[in-house]
Amino acid sequence: MSNSAQHKTTIASLPWEIIANVLILAAEANITEGYAPSYTYGLSQVSRTLQLHHKVQVQKHITGRIPPDILRWKASDAIRQTCSVWHEWALGYNFKELYVRRWRGGESWDPKFLALPSPSGGPLTSDIFPVVYQDPYRTLKSTVTLFQHCPHLASHVRRLWFTGIYQFSNLELIFKIIRGCQNLRSLTLPWSALRYGSVDDWIHITNNLPRLTSLEFLGMDLRQSQIDGDKNINVNCQALEDIRVNFSKIRRLKIHGCSNVQNIVDEDLWEIARTATNLEEVHITGTSTISIAGITALLSASHKSIKVLNFAPLDYNTSGTTHLNPSPGLPKIHFCDVVTSCRNLVDVNVSIPHICEHILCPPPQYSKELLNFNGQSQKMLKWSGNTIIRLPYQGRTCTHPDLPLEHPDSRAQIQEVLSAARRLQQSTRELSIELIIGDYTFTPGAFSVAGDFKEAKKMSEGLWQPEGERDSRKGPWGSSGVWGDAGMKRWTEIGEDDFFEGVRSGLVRFEH
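Now predict its structure.
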């Protein structure tokens, strides 16, 4: 017998890394090739009278997409039943990302009535059956029960995501699920977890989950009926104030949205920053209760490790981004100096209440190499990609915080910022900088300004006519589009010199 016959290669004899990749490709093929349905279907509704007396053709229609977690179960169903080893792989494939949602929808038929005979003695379809409403937290409760009976399943969870679950009574169930997921990498929680979670709960999250590096909070407004019906709405365990709660293992912190009940504020970020010294990414968007003071605290604590900064506060009372004043009692720190002291910072998208040229070039006191301001200073920054810096409505310059931007001193500092941006772009070819100041978007590298100049030209009675004016697709949010009713306006692009000439003559104002 030949050696090839004696040593036959089977799939079980391959390295496990290869087998795992093959199984992943097989599961994905089941989805892309249609073996696992990606959509849910329904039947067109026909009146009950027509169903009894006429033959009516019922049409099939798509009702929606199947959620990703359910789709993974369907795609790996055949693989899971092959052998015990592949069954264990399928558990890891399916539980890798676990989404626990608050159920939303209509009522369903009560199944116990379907087995009963018709009360009227007629056809079953002619009777109106009782309906029952679904428990919106059934998924949450069943997940707790599942992990209690099968604790080894929780060890497969890598990402855990909760949404629509924010009541005091349900947060206890959330923390029960978290306690079983010892291999958790990423955790998304409702904002109320910071208020309702006990000290022991947060000690477990920050200290006893060794692989957890990403933490995210989602905020949302509650209806007044939800606030009035919850007697524990104002409970605050103040877990962040305990010195045993340690965020030093967290690499990515994200806060999105805001709430009308016990929202996340600057003081919470200061408590987190006390131990969060290794953050690499900070994403804070869509909130109106966090100011630059909280962001400064996080950057100061992680200035050696931070790489990504995304801060876009939102205020629905104005057409765009605005800024809260820093919380009273917190120390005042020059934010521009803090940003440029973060030597590993690469990706920047930030909204600030004051601006100066130091946000684009470190001040000389940080390094002996910065004695030559025009040359060596920009080499210390590692920014790349598309950088967006917003100076929203009522913004001022750092040197002249009491003067409007149209004042000659403030205007001169804005021009210094634009010059610093151009010097930084010249030293970093892969960098594109946009400065959004008030109602206008500046592209320093192209010496251009985008905005609505129709009223300014009308006021000048034809005396102010910018040269090379052309249509622009930019808006108050930069290249990403426009905000609010600004989409109805015609945006054009002019040169910087023409723009500041309009400002000097009083025809153009940074804020309308």
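Residues 364 and 370 are 5 Å apart (CA to CA).
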